[in-house]
TrEMBL record:
Record keywords, A-Z: ATP-binding, Kinase, Nucleotide-binding, Phosphoprotein, Serine/threonine-protein kinase, Transferase
Keyword Transferase applies: yes
Species of origin: Anaeramoeba flamelloides
Name of the protein in question: non-specific serine/threonine protein kinase
TM segment ranges: none
Domain of life: Eukaryota
Domain annotation Protein kinase: ranges: 112-369
Location of the AGC-kinase C-terminal domain: 370-441
SUPFAM superfamilies (alphabetical): PH domain-like, Protein kinase-like (PK-like)
Length: 443
């Protein structure tokens, strides 16, 4: 069961569990347990690295029944009081998992068996891998540092890692490990064996409205979660929307997200990037934009799901831009009224009147979603109408043969390229595990 706000604490914008106790706020972030004097306290009053060697035990104290004692060798014990046995167990589990994850040994590609290539981008490839000790499978994205020579691309990559590290959401791909060599950066992400929504649309032409509705609702929750973390996704398109083994959505590729909207622009940001057919007019016009651009892309995606192609399309990129800015939107006759109205309101060229500008609930309350229980959506309680055909968890049948027939190997990078890389640029990338196992957002 998922819960975002609990009696004991709440999940912060950054996705960390925070617990309040005796006017102090406790938080696990990375492998650090910190406590703050108050909720907004910038500087933690105390930091406790959850590393090997610490012991976590359940105990009782005069003043509390459910206490967690963390003992660091040669140091004092640290106590957290929980308000129930369940909560006590959750903390013990979270701390133990964190400690295990940060055993000290760095993870490297050696720890994974490479199974298959499943995708390729400009800067590297995505492989299906299995971690040798746990037998868990991941989608390993590798990026050649040399290909990221451009400063902006490096920032994108680091922002991807930073964003992925912080998110934990049922419909967003999560990051489990990240590490690097002199040549490459690696990220072990959730594997979504159902393949891309792009493949579904190309194979099936149009998707039935009920199917599109659940996809759109799940995507909306994922985008809203990113927005609440001050992240504009900006790159919503069917290639980045994947299906997991049950047929639920997993959004991937945060390579273009930009965190911390530049406050100088009054909460708006001015960098141009994205894919032409899904770009909002304000991005094309190079005017400051905000998270409302994602609701435009959602409108384009809904249109493409229901009709089989995006509303503003041409082989000529310049013409696509022209169409997005000026061409009258035509919605085919067979699209039902509620869907048509939602598409028209999301594809409002004026971001100040576009649906969603008054908040996320404005879109949730649109008649297209009448009868939808959003809690059930979040909890994955609606069974998807399409369940991907998957033999086992390592099945790559839903990915393009163009990739899966490729020889799987960690390709060598030319020495001439390695020499050019300034390694300092990638400081801080190595091994970030996630805080798992606490009753925050289990999916
Ligand atoms: N997880 C992250 N990226 C992925 C991809 N391209 N394919 C499958 N699962 C993924």
């Amino acid at each position: 069961m998922s819960k975002q706000i609990t009696k004991q604490g709440y999940l912060s914008k950054q996705g960390h569990l925070i617990k309040k106790w005796k006017k102090r706020w406790f938080m696990i972030s990375g492998n650090i347990l910190s406590y703050y004097k108050n909720e907004n306290g910038k500087l933690p009053k105390g930091l406790l690295p959850l590393t090997e060697g610490i012991t976590v035990v359940k105990t009782k104290k005069r003043w509390k029944k459910w206490v967690i004692a963390i003992t660091i060798p040669q140091k004092n014990s640290f106590y957290i009081a929980a308000s129930s046995e369940k909560e006590q167990n959750e903390w013990v589990e979270a701390i133990t998992n964190t400690t295990k994850r940060f055993k000290g040994d760095k993870v490297s590609l050696e720890d994974f068996k490479l199974l298959s290539v499943i995708g390729r981008g400009t800067y590297g490839k995505v492989m299906l891998v299995k971690k040798k000790d746990t037998k868990k499978v991941y989608a390993m994205k590798s990026l050649q540092k040399g290909m990221l020579a451009d400063h902006k691309q490096i920032l994108h990559t680091l922002s991807e890692r930073d964003v992925l590290m912080r998110v934990r959401h049922p419909f967003l791909v999560g990051l489990h490990y990240s590490f690097q060599t002199t040549e490459k950066l690696y990220m072990a992400l959730d594997y979504a064996p159902g393949g891309e929504l792009f493949t579904r649309i190309s194979e099936e032409g149009k998707l039935p409205q009920d199917r599109a509705k659940l996809y759109i609702a799940e995507i909306m929750l994922a985008l809203d979660h990113l927005h609440k973390m001050d992240v504009v996704y900006r790159d919503l398109k069917p290639e980045n929307v994947l299906l997991d083994q049950e047929g639920h959505i997993k959004i991937t590729d945060f390579g273009l997200v930009k965190t911390d909207l530049n406050k100088k622009f009054g909460g708006k940001t001015g960098t141009f990037c994205g894919t032409p057919e899904y770009l909002a007019p304000e991005i094309i016009l190079d005017t400051p934009y905000n998270e409302i651009v994602d609701w435009w892309s959602l409108g384009i995606l809904l249109y493409e799901m229901l009709t089989g192609s995006p509303p503003f399309y041409s082989d000529d990129v310049e013409e696509v831009f022209e169409f997005i800015i000026r061409k009258k939107l035509t919605v085919p006759f067979y699209i039902e009224d509620e869907a048509r109205d939602l598409i028209e309101k999301l594809l409002d060229r004026n971001p100040l009147t576009r649906l969603g500008v008054k908040g996320f609930t404005q879109i949730q309350n649109h008649p297209f979603f009448n009868g939808i229980d959003w809690k059930k959506v979040y909890n994955r309680e609606y069974t998807p109408l399409f369940i991907p055909k998957i033999e086992d968890i390592t099945d790559v049948g839903n990915f393009d043969e163009e990739f899966t027939e490729e020889k799987v190997e960690d390709s060598l990078v030319k020495v001439s390229v390695i020499g050019k890389v300034n390694q300092d640029t990638f400081d801080g990338f190595t091994f970030i595990g996630r805080v798992d196992g606490i009753g925050v957002m289990n999916n």
